Design the sequence.
């Protein structure tokens, strides 16, 4: 019950935050130089003032700023993200088209980074001071220091171009019209490289965090208690240290969801992944206001969702939180 | 503290690497008086293929070694200045929130959370695009997306220091609140801030390179990310054009991380002992 | 003297009848970059849209690489001797993709109603047109007010796409739901569009020329990253890289691969010419000596050889060599930094910084700007690059907020269609990046441009344009750089891919795959 | 019958420590059914001995020499699997901090049954049964509920009982208890001590009980060893060591212990230095969109007076509100009602601005010597900030600071140094000097000696007593330890749950307490009986 109430109150706060984000971004994006009507007219091949005026009228850009803002906010309150004039479709449809790809990519990367990060962190902590620990921590440091896009480029070069093991870009084999399991397999193959490169950096983060946290918890008094009970080393690590050490990692992971979603812009660009990050980047150059704003809102909502999920996980793992609230 | 730091071999490696990078950056105008943009030879020369061009030439026949050296200037400058700006935003905000609590805290933290909810790289892209890519706008954008963790850290530190008894003693001495914050509380939060700052410089360098890679770099200031972005299309035929700047980024970021960890161990001796030989 | 020209073509189908060697079937994967904003060609005339929709929509004519008209929806046509009446005879049995018969009314609706409202570039040509009528279902007559030499070049698919009247008449064109599933008369039908991934077209089984098209289906693949596009071609995922879809540095590597062919043809109609706008209104660029100095300072051959990897030709003036009425008898601006320095000294250049605005179309253009900046710096001009994205570039050029700005424009086969618009005073209008953006004012030349457009015989026009070119090159209102060449790269088993002056844009009708 | 025999145990510290050995040549034995108390101050090596037995030595600390014979096996030399089998089963251990010694994320029941699981004993159902029995045996209420509870849902005493249940699970022959009652309130401590005694009697196990408190020793020890800097300085039967200490160090320790020996009564002062009238402070927690507000009445209508030159002791268990009262009296906490009158000025009613001008009137000496000095400020700064703020010229303030440092026994040179260069006791002296530097009407000492080792504690108490006499100081002395209060105070006020229970002269409170609660507190003081036996005023 308390969990439910806590989530309810968080959601209420989250909705306010989202609205604030919408307003702020509206200001930001409209402050950018460049008129979407001119861009669109340019794309049409030739522009004369008459056409630009037509376009401005259609976009509602001829109206005063506060009217535009008011209309936008009013639309948002009705879950209407506006219309993309450049793409000729409602923004919500554009995003709905692209969102599954982004969700698949970020969630996979999230899970990969969390699972492998924690596993490697535990392994390193168990071998602390030994050569294998140094090797693992050095590796993590390297991952941490490697630019995401560079790793992506190198991965494509090696695994796709030289070795030919995995497709280097795209979401699925176009026109292969696979169905059922074959399609899942096909998408999974395309997913490997982008998810890995996106997850690599965060894997390093979680690994270092897990290792540090494991080492810190292993000096806790209750670990001494467990030893005094006659538990074996692995049992202590599993039952006592890991469970306590994982809490800060989960918190951090939830907080970093925003970076993960942002990092998807780079990954989606290099791997031609048809997600919302790329949609935003492309819309930016065209000053496709509504689409940029829509993507921002949706990705902020994703961040909040990640946060709420980690919060729930935290509450499940840690009995103290729910009771205290 | 220096003793503890200097006994940490990885941290020393970090210092040596960073000094090397800084030296190259400072000496760039001496080593390469022609600047990084001068077209000096045929394009796409392999490293060592021609004397005097140890790292080869790029797509326009410019000296890659010169570009790396000048790129170091830009990367370090952006990394340092953006971190400073982020500190200038985050430290006061976090300090006020942590020290005064109540509505100040609530307001400041809402503000911070708000910025953390916006995916930061996406925000940086939009900011740079809006202000147009110049060194100043890139630096500012990186600062704007980097300060929230600073504010959170400073707030937490201030809150914990504020509860220490010497702060009560200072209040009993009749010191004003701003003075207590400035002279008693903040000096005691410096160590974790320094550690975080050193790691932030590393992150800022990565961010700058990512922006440049996407074409949002300052076209008049050659940076490593800019080089990789420019060379990305020829990665198959001229691997060295993206490889060396990538390596330079890795080395610099690695060095900063090693230093950051070394500082952390040296400044927080309690944490240092976990698991290692005391 | 009266001049009569009647052109009559035999039924095209007979000429294009399938030869024994041509094989039906197969699928083609073509890169489209960037992803088009939409496919309704009557509303959007940008490159990507035309690349895809050029196979869905058709116009009355097509043009061969010498820019001579060929039949398309019109099987034959006549131009009256006074150059005022254009009569087109349409093919019989043409169906829209939804099965509705295509008639002359559709042509009248498209040219006179729909495109007048939506197509700015055609609107300029339509200004010469007095009336468009359909005497019967298979005949269309364009009546001009005064002679307009280039009018015969206006019937290309991108210039005058024929749209279905039964779908658009009386609707709000821009918001018509059918824009998402375009209906044309072309050889391929729209099947599906997965945003961010691909557009799928399938063979039009009811196409009015028997046996065409040969291909079963076409996928236009959206791959946002130039390097990935190259990889896609190498790994066999795509078969055709239209011009400009990979960076120039990758072209030699890709064309050297086994079984890969390339061609520079298929751009004659557009004849893209690149130059830098130089702001004639203010700053150092308002001084003709400075502008000439810029021309001398640039090593344009280096750019052609290195940045463009040898593709293209250094431009001599405002008209591209593929465009009608080109002449090279003008002042040549060879690379000569010393001459540039002399001119700068003569004008007393004070070192004021000039901003170079590159075209935000990828690495090639960025490198080009860097090379120019270096050239200018070495000649003693303080230049720095002003960076911007597409929207910013549009804004700055159309609002005249620049010193030097890269651009390239299509010429559409005739100086009156694609060249004069950039140099006459009536084209000085804020808000468009495609007109006389540099602010060049020369009333004498304006008169000559106008006269040349209305002359009836090609010989007269050629002489007039030669004079114009000679004069304007000395004024250097803009810095002409290069005639661009965008090689199309494809697998050699694909035959007849590029057969017209707009290449891949409408080439799939005749393309086939050798098994 | 000997359960454990330690012979010549020497434990080496890593290089760089303040001395080479944690323990040197330590020998002792514990018989079946016997309780051995190991007594010593911090750093004496008493815990290291226990940790060595359990194989819980920190990294870098190693056994250099000696044997520990347990059932004829040298447990120090056993291979790890056998040590593991021994731990929890034959030798069990409980720790000082019940707050941290239990895994916060595991239910109590699971933590108990884990002992059986670790030694592969019994079926899950039987483990649960046995856990219930154990929980009942250590006197925890509502066993069914307790084994499903998480540690944070239990009080400190309950947690320590749960720890003991775990330790007893497999009926060990030896129980090692490392300061198990130090973190507990006196009344709870008394209960736990009784439980240990009780279990020893019923099970007949040997107990090694580590403590720094001779009061505790008096309560439960059969035999005693006293350790100092890693060596055993005295050993013997409890009565003998307490009654007739041989070694000079033991004597010093015993002398230092505030035994409840009552000082002679002093004449009562008439002018009040501090008057507290009807003081109230309520803490509200929670509150928010969906949460109810919870109220804790930390100080509930308390009135008392501290006379000029008087030391008033304020005693109570944790949560009694005594610290809040002290902090309210200096206006570190703003009260919800009532008055705090110092020299006729009501501190509680002043604005923040006016308050700063009046701050110097009441000063405080804090509990934690490590937190009460700014680590980044020289001592001189700490001692002169306040006076300079008050308007004293800098040179004069500095001269006065040097004088004060002399007075508290540190020497004027201390002014130039940083806090980390001083020990805990020295820092507490600096804290006192800092308070004196403001020339306050009243000093509030909040658990000012609680964090110190007994011998240091005695020195600081001596200093306070000395200052009181020399400077005629008025002190509100807050402590949880009745014995400490007895040593220094003229009068004692007892607080419980925010209310003032009883106030009176030391003699009245100790010898004729009127309230039940006061009597309970007095009864719970460890070694109370022994102190009386030792011929103190009764």
Sequence:
């Amino acid at each position: 019950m308390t969990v439910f109430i806590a989530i309810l109150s968080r959601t209420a706060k989250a909705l306010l935050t989202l609205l604030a984000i919408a307003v702020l971004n509206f200001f930001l994006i409209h402050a950018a130089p460049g008129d979407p009507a001119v861009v669109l007219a340019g794309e049409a091949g030739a522009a004369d003032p008459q056409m630009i005026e037509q376009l401005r009228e259609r976009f509602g850009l001829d109206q005063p700023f506060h009217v535009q803002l008011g209309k936008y906010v009013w639309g948002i309150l009705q879950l209407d993200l506006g219309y993309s004039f450049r793409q000729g479709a409602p923004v919500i449809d554009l995003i709905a088209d692209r969102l599954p790809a982004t969700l698949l990519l970020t969630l996979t990367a999230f899970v990969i980074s969390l699972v492998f990060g924690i596993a490697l962190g535990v392994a390193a902590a168990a071998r602390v001071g030994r050569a294998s620990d140094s090797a693992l921590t050095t590796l993590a440091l390297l991952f941490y220091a490697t630019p995401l896009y560079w790793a992506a480029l190198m991965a494509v070069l090696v695994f796709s171009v030289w070795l030919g093991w995995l497709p280097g870009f795209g979401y699925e084999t176009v026109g292969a019209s696979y169905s059922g399991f074959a399609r899942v397999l096909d998408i999974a193959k395309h997913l490997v490289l982008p998810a890995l490169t996106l997850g690599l950096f965060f894997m390093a983060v979680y690994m270092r965090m897990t290792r540090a946290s494991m080492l810190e918890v292993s000096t806790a008094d209750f670990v001494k208690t467990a030893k005094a009970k006659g538990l074996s080393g692995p049992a202590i690590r599993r039952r006592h240290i890991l469970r306590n050490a994982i809490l800060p990692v989960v918190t951090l992971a939830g907080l970093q969801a925003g970076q993960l979603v942002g990092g998807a812009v780079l990954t989606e660009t290099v791997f031609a992944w048809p997600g919302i990050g790329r949609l935003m980047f492309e819309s930016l150059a065209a000053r496709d206001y509504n689409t940029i704003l829509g993507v921002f809102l949706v990705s902020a909502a994703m961040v909040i969702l990640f946060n709420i999920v980690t919060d729930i996980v935290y509450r499940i793992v840690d009995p103290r939180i729910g009771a205290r609230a | 503290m220096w003793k503890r730091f200097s006994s940490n071999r990885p941290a020393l490696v970090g210092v040596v690497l960073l000094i090397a990078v800084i030296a190259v950056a400072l000496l760039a105008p001496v080593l390469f008086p022609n600047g990084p943009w001068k077209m000096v030879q045929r394009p796409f020369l392999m490293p060592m293929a021609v004397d005097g061009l140890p790292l080869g030439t790029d797509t326009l026949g410019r000296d890659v070694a010169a570009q790396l050296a000048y790129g170091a200037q830009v990367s370090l400058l952006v990394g340092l200045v953006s971190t400073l700006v982020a500190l200038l935003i985050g430290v006061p905000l976090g300090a006020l929130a942590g020290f005064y609590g109540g509505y100040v805290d609530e307001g400041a933290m809402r503000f911070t959370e708000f910025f953390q909810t916006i995916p930061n790289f996406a925000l940086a892209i939009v900011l740079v695009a809006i202000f147009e890519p110049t060194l100043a706008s890139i630096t500012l954008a990186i600062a704007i997306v980097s300060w929230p963790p600073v504010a959170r850290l400073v707030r937490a530190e201030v809150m914990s220091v504020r509860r220490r008894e010497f702060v009560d003693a200072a209040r009993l001495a009749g010191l004003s609140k701003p003075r207590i914050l400035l002279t008693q509380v903040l000096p005691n939060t410096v160590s974790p801030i320094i550690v975080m700052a050193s790691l932030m410089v590393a992150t800022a360098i990565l961010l700058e390179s990512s922006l440049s890679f996407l074409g949002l770099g300052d076209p008049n200031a050659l940076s490593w990310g800019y080089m990789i972005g420019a060379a990305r299309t020829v990665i198959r035929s001229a691997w060295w054009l993206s490889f060396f700047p990538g390596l330079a980024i890795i080395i610099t970021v690695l060095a900063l991380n090693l230093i950051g960890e070394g500082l952390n161990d040296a400044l927080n001796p309690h944490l240092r002992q976990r698991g290692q030989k005391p | 003297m009266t001049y009569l020209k009647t052109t009559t073509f035999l039924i095209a189908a007979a000429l294009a009848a399938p030869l024994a060697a041509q094989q039906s079937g197969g699928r083609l994967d073509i890169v489209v970059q960037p992803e088009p904003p939409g496919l309704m060609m009557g509303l959007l005339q940008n490159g990507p849209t035309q690349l895809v929709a050029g196979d869905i929509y058709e116009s009355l004519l097509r043009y061969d690489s010498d820019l001579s008209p060929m039949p398309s929806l019109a099987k034959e046509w006549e131009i009256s001797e006074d150059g005022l009446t254009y009569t087109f005879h349409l093919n019989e049995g043409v169906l829209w993709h939804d099965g509705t018969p295509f008639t002359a009314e559709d042509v009248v609706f498209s040219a006179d109603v729909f495109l007048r409202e939506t197509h700015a570039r055609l609107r300029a040509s339509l200004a010469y047109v007095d009336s468009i009528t359909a005497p019967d279902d298979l005949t269309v007559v364009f009546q001009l007010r005064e002679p307009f030499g280039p009018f015969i070049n206006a019937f290309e698919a991108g210039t005058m796409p024929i749209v279905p009247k039964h779908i658009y008449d009386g609707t709000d064109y821009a918001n018509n739901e059918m824009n998402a599933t375009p209906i044309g008369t072309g050889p391929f039908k729209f099947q599906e569009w997965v945003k961010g991934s691909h557009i799928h077209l399938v063979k039009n089984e009811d196409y009015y020329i028997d046996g065409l098209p040969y291909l079963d289906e076409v996928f236009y693949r959206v791959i946002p990253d130039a390097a990935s596009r190259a990889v896609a071609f190498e790994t066999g995922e795509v078969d055709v890289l239209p011009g400009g879809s990979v960076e120039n540095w990758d072209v030699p590597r890709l064309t050297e691969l086994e079984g890969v062919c390339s061609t520079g043809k298929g751009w004659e109609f557009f004849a893209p010419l690149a130059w830098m706008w130089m702001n004639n209104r203010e700053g150092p660029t308002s001084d003709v000596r400075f502008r000439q100095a810029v021309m001398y300072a640039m090593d344009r051959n280096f750019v052609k050889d290195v940045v463009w990897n040898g593709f293209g030709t250094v431009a001599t003036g405002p008209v591209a060599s593929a465009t009608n009425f080109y002449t090279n008898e003008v002042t040549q601006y060879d690379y000569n930094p010393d001459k540039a320095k002399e001119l700068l000294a003569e004008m007393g250049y004070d070192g004021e910084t000039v901003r170079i605005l590159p075209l935000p179309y990828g690495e090639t253009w960025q490198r080009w700007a860097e090379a120019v900046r270096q050239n200018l710096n070495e000649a003693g001009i303080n230049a720095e690059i002003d960076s911007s994205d597409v929207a910013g570039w549009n804004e700055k050029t159309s609002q005249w907020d620049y010193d030097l700005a890269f651009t390239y424009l299509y010429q559409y086969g005739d100086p009156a269609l694609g060249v004069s618009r950039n140099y006459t005073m009536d084209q000085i209008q804020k808000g468009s990046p495609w007109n006389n953006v540099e602010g060049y004012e020369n009333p004498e030349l304006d008169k000559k441009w106008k006269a040349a457009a209305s002359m009836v015989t090609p010989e007269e026009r050629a002489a007039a344009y030669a004079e114009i070119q000679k004069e304007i090159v000395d004024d250097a209102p803009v810095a002409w750089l290069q005639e661009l060449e965008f090689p199309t790269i494809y697998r050699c088993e694909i035959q007849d891919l590029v057969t017209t002056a707009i290449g891949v844009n409408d080439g799939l009708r005749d393309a086939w795959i050798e098994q | 019958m000997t359960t454990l025999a330690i012979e010549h145990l020497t434990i080496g510290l890593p290089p760089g420590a303040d001395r080479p050995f944690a323990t040197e040549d330590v020998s002792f034995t514990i018989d079946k059914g016997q309780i051995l108390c190991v007594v010593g101050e911090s750093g004496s090596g008493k815990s290291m001995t226990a940790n060595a037995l359990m194989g819980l030595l920190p990294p870098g600390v190693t056994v250099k020499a000696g044997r520990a014979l347990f059932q004829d096996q040298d447990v120090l030399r056993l291979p790890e699997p056998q040590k593991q089998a021994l731990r929890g089963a034959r030798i069990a251990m409980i720790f000082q901090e019940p707050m941290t010694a239990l895994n916060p994320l595991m239910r109590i029941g699971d933590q108990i049954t884990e002992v059986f699981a670790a030694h592969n004993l019994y079926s899950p159902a039987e483990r649960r049964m046995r856990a219930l029995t154990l929980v009942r045996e250590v006197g925890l209420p509502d066993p069914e509920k307790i084994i499903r509870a998480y540690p944070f849902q239990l009080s400190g005493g309950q947690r320590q009982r749960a720890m003991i249940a775990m330790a007893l699970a497999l009926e060990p022959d030896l129980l090692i208890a490392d300061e198990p009652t130090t973190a507990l309130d006196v009344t709870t401590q008394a209960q736990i001590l009784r439980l240990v005694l009780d279990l020893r009697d019923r099970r007949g196990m040997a107990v090694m009980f580590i403590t720094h408190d001779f009061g505790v020793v008096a309560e439960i020890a059969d035999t005693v060893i006293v350790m100092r800097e890693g060596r055993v300085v005295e050993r013997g039967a409890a009565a003998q060591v307490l009654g007739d200490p041989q070694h000079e160090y033991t004597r010093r320790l015993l002398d230092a212990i505030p035994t409840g020996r009552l000082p002679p009564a002093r004449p009562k002062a008439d002018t009040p230095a501090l008057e507290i009238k009807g003081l109230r402070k309520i803490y509200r927690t929670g509150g928010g969109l969906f949460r109810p507000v919870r109220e804790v009445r930390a100080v509930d209508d308390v009135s008392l007076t501290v006379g000029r030159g008087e030391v008033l002791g304020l005693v109570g268990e944790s949560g009694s509100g005594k610290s809040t009262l002290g902090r309210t009296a200096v206006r570190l906490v703003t009260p919800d009602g009532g008055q705090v009158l110092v020299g006729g000025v009501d501190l509680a009613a002043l604005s923040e601005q006016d308050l700063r001008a009046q701050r110097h009137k009441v000063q405080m000496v804090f509990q934690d010597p490590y937190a009460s000095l700014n680590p980044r400020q020289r001592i001189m700064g700490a001692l002169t900030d306040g006076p300079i703020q008050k308007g004293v010229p800098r040179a004069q303030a500095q001269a006065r600071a040097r004088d004060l440092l002399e007075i508290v026994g540190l020497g004027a040179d201390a002014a130039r140094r940083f806090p980390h260069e001083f020990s805990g006791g020295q820092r507490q002296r600096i804290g006192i000097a800092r308070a004196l530097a403001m020339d306050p009407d009243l000093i509030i000492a909040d658990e000012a000696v609680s964090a110190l080792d007994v011998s240091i504690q005695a020195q600081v108490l001596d200093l306070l007593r000395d200052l009181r006499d020399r400077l005629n100081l008025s002190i509100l002395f807050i402590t949880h330890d009745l014995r400490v209060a007895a040593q220094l105070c003229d009068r004692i006020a007892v607080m419980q749950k925010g209310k003032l229970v009883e106030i009176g002269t030391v003699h009245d409170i100790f010898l004729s307490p009127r309230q039940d609660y006061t009597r309970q507190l007095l009864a719970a003081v460890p070694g109370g009986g022994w102190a009386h036996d030792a011929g103190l005023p009764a």
User: Anything to note?
Assistant: Residues 37 and 179 of chain A are 41 Å apart (CA to CA).
